[in-house]
Design a protein that fits this description.
Oligomer: heterotrimer
CATH architecture of the largest domain in chain A: Orthogonal Bundle
CATH superfamily of the largest domain in chain B: MetI-like
Structural class of chain B: mainly alpha
Helix content of chain A: over 70%
Strand content of chain A: under 5%
Chains: A mainly alpha (458), B mainly alpha (430), C alpha/beta (265)
Shape of chain A: flat
CATH architecture of the largest domain in chain B: Orthogonal Bundle
Shape of chain B: extended
Largest sheet of chain B: 3 strands, antiparallel
Strand content of chain B: 5-15%
Radius of gyration of chain B: 32 Å
Order of helices and strands of chain A: HHHHHHHHHHHHHHHH
CATH topology of the largest domain in chain B: MetI-like fold
Number of helices of chain B: 16
Largest sheet of chain A: none
Number of helices of chain A: 16
Helix content of chain B: 55-70%
CATH class of the largest domain in chain B: Mainly Alpha
Number of strands of chain A: 0
Structural class of chain A: mainly alpha
CATH superfamily of the largest domain in chain A: MetI-like
Chain lengths: 458, 430, 265
């Protein structure tokens, strides 16, 4: 039925285009001077139908599920749902839906079967309604648009105004997305903070969300202190950055200043490949190769190494960040004006002295901006740590121990069954909120530094 | 001040410079050496990464099979009762003649011997007979996969010298397998099931079909949404937007969105698409929607760069003959910028293809044994399938994970190659 | 052209400092300098003039091997300083550039303090053993750059904060701090206003006492004001070389004459 609605829309658009175009051509052939060429009359009609009807169809599809569910649930016999928790109500709804879908398990109660019938009935009428509304609306607009055709009508301006509106809408999606992120995170975080006090969350030193918690027990348990989680994140980020900065910077300096052209043109893209490898691949690499290697190294030296050390996850993350840092450093070094380089060389500085004493200090702001973006990326990186870091929150700074990170906790808390009234689920959103805020601050700061730096040398 | 003129100083500049020259050059070589070491470490890591995946993954592209002459006993398989029937027993009956040591009357012995068949072997036989019931009562040649432990044994991933109690196969099982091998019924063939099967709990049956289709539907959705919306936004911001607070704010938003951690987009999708809009879980359409939000900033940034590269003279020329601003932009500027836009889009889609975390949060890591027929059927995606297999305890999944990684990397390389080709083919020097 | 006051000085008694023999410079496929032969005298200001793109800067940059930093650039022929071939395999460009200082078209102070800018050359070359010696060199160089009085109270302020003319004199001070024999100047006044130009020109005339100065300029008036010898380049060739007053008053080549009278350029 949905397909039918879209087909009607498509057909209506095409018919309206043809109608208006023909009408306009007719006027022109009748000797009138048209303000807009006939194609624009057609385009105007097409857009007039396409935009509003498409909006109606999409809204209908988004809303119909929720409306039908609510109607079905409210029409259940009096008292059926009394005293049931939200989870149980959801379960009943799911059962009704599956009965309506033809998957009957066991012997459902009569009222459920009745509700299921009502459910499929409502769905059918909703689909029928959609088709009807689509057809009627399209037809109405088609007549309206047809009536507009005249020699004076500014069809081009009309069509262009609609197109402008569409483009503005596209641009504003970026704002919608940000608002959506903030709203969804904030909404769930507020719910979380009703269950767990903010101070416990921010300053608690124990993170044990896996413990089964009854709703009245949460605050007393105090198992939602994010400190060990953020400390683990910081440990892994530091390991990653400590590896990525020297390798990335030295590669950039070598490629930018010393490498012969052919070497540079081969090495740069190869380095970029490291940035294109999906993080899930790095994660598997960490557990398949790096973690066992570190463990056997530790065993050989008699050091006690945890099975999923921060070192393995952080090290692999560091490798992932190398091209990131090196390309920022490369850009920053290239942006230093040639005059400074020439000035140093003309004084008799060696190329190494030129780089270290003149170019590098001048490029520092750009490089710092790049490093900050790399830090924000390391904090937000998910798959490597989900696969290679630990699950248990461990308040330690030792990179040889197993630690967990914010992103690991978000993913493990949300994988599997999630309902939105469970403190476990809400805790993930609270962590997500913190992650978003921290990375946002770093990003804004870093982007500002980078932009200032570019302006300084433009 | 003439005392410093050349030659009159006790020690000339040249001599002083000479004195430290060797040391200064040595410093330069050291810095250069560090640079080469740094690059070598990065390359070495890339090499180890790729090599480890190839070395473990290539084995999954072969599958050990057993080929038997199977007599489809009408006693066991009744044409009237299809698709039910004792296909298991039919296969075992065909197997036992090769294993004289197995006591056909001992149920334990027979069960041990039949463990060599993959769990899915009976379904291969069943499907063939359901397709053509006239085979009942005849002898047919069946080639079925062996189960994972035997597959590992054949690929020499099981060390025969390990003490028996630490092995997954005991001595009897190994000797059974060796007898079959000597009888010539064990063969190794290209593992087409890796592409044509969907996921399975049994490594020898597990394939990527579901994941590939899931990724395809998700990317298609992502493309259909992000491409037009991204171009619309970029064209507006680059060509039409007035320089005001709103444009600046949009711009800041786009730049920041490009740097928001992907897992946050997952949270957005979970809360808004699934929680508030009531969209279904584990569905490629929702995955594609989420990926579209993440890909849009990439496409917008690439498109704006491509539009900027079109020289203003083109715009002026078209405006000069009386075209409207929109006619200029859509008739001339956008078509000229298309190669750049497409390149950026392909690179954005390649990133989206490898994106895992947001798909995990919307449940695309479910265990689903059938391939999706539409973007609204539950499925996994290529990267989430890698995650699932990497998490699976069976040994056979290790090489399959690497094989899946190789498949994913192949797609990424292909997409990037197309992007590079487009760029070099259509790149215009103004 | 009343400011074209040609200064005649007795210069032919000076020894030859730089001598170029059959110098060819190529940028990739382009033959930028064609067969240039020139003898540059000690303690003299020699001006290279010619229309833009004639190769005068390129030739200047090959005297301290700055062209080495451009990948596609290739120099053939011999350039001798004090009789020594600077393109000899045994010559280290680093050492050469300590002897042959250079000042660029646009003032390019390092983003460091005034003091550090001037001290940089002596520091890397190890010319001063103690801080006091370094202080002395810096002061001497800044005095010689005729900027000491303007900056002596703010030696540790950033060099980029000075005005354009001050920056250029700072760069000259930086170049002379390594006590070179030769000072190459590539259009040192083209980015400066007339007052700063006059200051720098006056400085160049003083520098002649201690150094051999070679200056590239697109301004004929400037060449006439500051130089004793002038070389006219056209399309990569050295057309005419001689005493400045002769070149300007009595050019031998018709191309020189056309340029000076404003018909080429």
């Amino acid at each position: 039925m949905t397909t039918l609605a879209f087909a009607i829309l498509l057909a209506a658009c095409m018919v309206a285009y043809a109608l208006n175009r023909r009408a306009a051509t007719g006027l022109r052939d009748g000797g009138q001077r048209l303000h807009s060429v006939s194609g624009y009359h057609g385009l105007f009609a097409l857009l007039m139908i396409l935009v509003p009807v498409l909006v109606v169809i999409l809204l209908w599809l988004v809303l119909q599920g929720a409306v039908v569910n609510r109607l079905v649930m409210s029409s259940l016999p009096e008292g059926t749902l009394d005293g049931l928790g939200k989870g149980q109500v959801d379960l009943i709804l799911a059962e009704i839906q599956s009965i309506a879908g033809g998957r009957v398990f066991g012997e459902p109660e009569v009222w459920k079967i009745a509700a299921a019938e009502r459910f499929s009935g409502l769905l059918q009428s909703a689909a029928l309604g959609l088709v009807l509304v689509t057809a009627l609306l399209s037809l109405a607009i088609m007549f309206f648009a047809r009536s507009k055709v005249s020699a004076e009508f500014r069809a081009r301006q009309g069509a262009e105004r609609i197109i402008s509106g569409l483009m503005i809408f596209c641009s504003v999606i970026a704002i919608f997305t940000t608002v959506g992120i903030v709203a969804s995170l904030a909404f769930e975080t507020v719910k979380f903070l009703k269950l767990v006090p903010l101070t416990d969350f921010l300053f608690g030193t124990s993170w044990e969300p896996q413990i089964p918690i009854r709703a009245d027990q949460v605050a007393a348990e105090g198992a939602f202190g994010w400190l060990p989680v953020i400390v683990g994140t910081i440990v892994i980020t530091i390991v990653a950055i400590v590896i990525a900065i020297p390798i990335g910077l030295l590669s950039a300096i070598y490629l930018n200043e010393f490498a012969p052209k052919p070497v540079r043109s081969v090495c740069k893209p190869i380095l970029e490949v490291l940035a294109g490898v999906p993080t899930v691949v790095y994660g598997f690499f960490a557990i398949l190769v790096v973690a066992p290697a570190i463990r056997s190294l530790g065993a050989a030296w008699g050091i006690d190494v945890a099975p999923n050390t921060a070192l393995a996850a952080g090290g692999v993350m560091g490798i992932m960040l190398v091209p990131f840092i090196s390309s920022f450093a490369d850009d920053a070094l290239s942006a230093v004006p040639r005059a400074l380089r020439d000035g140093a060389l003309a004084l008799g500085a060696t190329r190494a002295e030129t780089v270290m004493n003149v170019l590098f200090p001048a490029a520092i702001p750009g490089i710092v901006g790049g490093v900050l973006l790399a830090v924000s990326r390391a904090i937000g990186e998910t798959m490597i740590v989900v696969m290679a870091a630990g699950l248990m929150a461990n308040l330690t700074l030792n990179p040889l121990e197993s630690v967990t990170t914010v992103t690991v906790q978000i993913v493990t808390l949300l994988i599997g069954d999630t309902s939105f009234d469970n403190p476990k689920t809400l805790a993930a959103f609270a962590l997500g909120m913190m992650l978003f805020i921290v990375t946002l601050i770093i990003n804004i700061f870093a982007l500002r530094i980078v932009r200032k730096y570019r302006e300084a040398y433009d | 001040m003439t005392d410093i003129s050349h030659g009159s100083a006790p020690q000339t500049t040249i001599d002083k410079v000479q004195a430290s020259l060797a040391r200064r050059h040595r410093k330069q070589y050291i810095l250069q050496g560090f640079g080469i070491v740094a690059i070598s470490i990065a390359f070495l890591m890339l090499f180890i990464l790729l090599w480890s995946q190839i070395a473990t993954g290539y084995k999954a592209f072969m599958q050990t099979n057993i080929t038997l002459e199977v007599f489809v006993d009408p006693e066991e398989v009744d044409a009237g009762k299809l698709p039910r029937g004792n296909f298991d027993d039919v296969l075992v009956a065909a197997l036992l003649p090769y294993l004289p040591n197995v006591d056909a009357s001992s149920r334990a012995d027979v069960r041990t011997a039949s463990g060599i068949f993959s769990n899915g072997a009976q379904f291969y036989l069943r499907n063939r007979i359901v397709e053509d019931p006239s085979l009942i009562g005849q002898t047919i040649t069946m080639r079925v996969p062996v189960s994972d432990p035997y597959d590992q044994l054949y690929k020499e991933l099981v060390d025969r010298d390990t003490p028996e109690n630490l092995r997954r196969l005991d001595n009897t099982q190994i000797s059974n397998f060796d007898q079959l091998y000597e009888a010539g019924v064990i063969t190794s063939r290209l593992n087409t099931a890796l592409i044509t099967n969907a996921d399975s709990r049994f490594p020898e049956l597990a394939g990527l079909k579901g994941a590939l289709l899931g990724s395809f539907w998700a990317l298609l959705t992502c493309f259909l949404i992000a491409f037009p919306l991204g171009i619309g936004a970029a064209v507006y911001l680059e060509e039409f937007a007035p320089k005001n607070k709103l444009s600046d704010f949009i711009e800041v938003n786009i730049n920041n969105l490009a740097a928001v951690p992907s897992v946050v987009f997952g949270l957005l999708a979970l809360a808004v698409f699934i929680g508030w809009f009531g969209m279904p879980r584990s569905v490629p359409f929702v995955g594609g929607l989420t990926l579209a939000l993440m890909t849009m900033p990439t496409i917008i940034i690439a498109t704006r760069a491509a539009l900027k590269a079109v020289p203003p003279s083109i715009r002026e020329a078209a405006l000069g003959v009386g075209a409207s601003k929109q006619q200029v932009v859509f008739g001339h500027v956008v078509p000229l910028a298309m190669p750049g836009i497409l390149t950026g889009t392909i690179i954005g889609l390649a990133q989206a293809l490898g994106e895992t975390a947001p798909l995990l949060l919307i449940g695309m890591n479910a265990f689903i044994t059938s391939a999706p027929g539409s973007p609204f059927d539950s499925s996994t995606a290529l990267p989430t399938q890698i995650f699932i297999w990497a998490d699976s305890p069976e040994r056979g999944f290790v090489s399959r994970t690497s094989a899946a990684i190789l498949v994913l990397l192949t797609f990424l390389i292909a997409m990037n190659a197309i992007a590079i080709y487009l760029r070099s083919k259509f790149e215009r020097k103004w | 052209m009343d400011d074209l006051r040609v200064v005649t000085r007795d210069i032919d008694t000076h020894a030859t400092k730089i001598s170029a023999k059959n110098v060819q410079v190529y940028y990739g496929e382009t033959h930028a300098i064609k067969d240039v032969n020139v003898e540059i005298k000690e303690h003299t200001v020699t001006a290279f003039i010619g229309p833009s793109g004639c190769g005068k800067s390129t030739f200047l940059r090959s005297i301290n091997r700055m062209n080495d930093t451009i990948d596609i650039c290739r120099v053939e022929g011999d350039i001798l300083i004090d009789g020594q071939d600077i393109y000899d395999r045994n010559i280290d460009p680093v050492q050469l550039r300590a002897r042959v200082g250079m000042v660029f078209q646009k003032p390019n102070p390092f983003p460091k303090s005034i003091y550090d800018n001037v001290a940089y050359g002596p520091k890397i070359h190890g010319l001063a053993r103690t801080k006091a010696e370094l202080d002395e060199i810096v002061e001497k160089s800044l005095r010689r750059g005729a900027i000491w009085d303007e900056v002596k109270d703010r030696l540790h302020a950033p060099g980029t904060g000075l005005s354009g003319g001050q920056q250029q004199r700072l760069c000259i001070a930086r170049a002379v701090a390594t006590e070179p024999d030769v000072l190459l100047m590539d259009e040192p006044c083209s980015a400066l206003d007339p007052i700063a130009t006059a200051q720098v020109e006056e400085l160049i005339d003083q520098l002649r006492e201690s150094y051999t100065v070679v200056i590239v300029t697109h301004s004929m008036q400037q060449a006439a004001r500051v130089s004793q010898k002038t070389a006219f380049f056209h399309l990569g060739s050295l057309v005419e070389y001689g005493n400045t007053d002769e070149i300007f008053t009595n050019p031998k080549d018709s191309r020189t004459e056309s340029y000076i009278s404003g018909r080429i350029g």
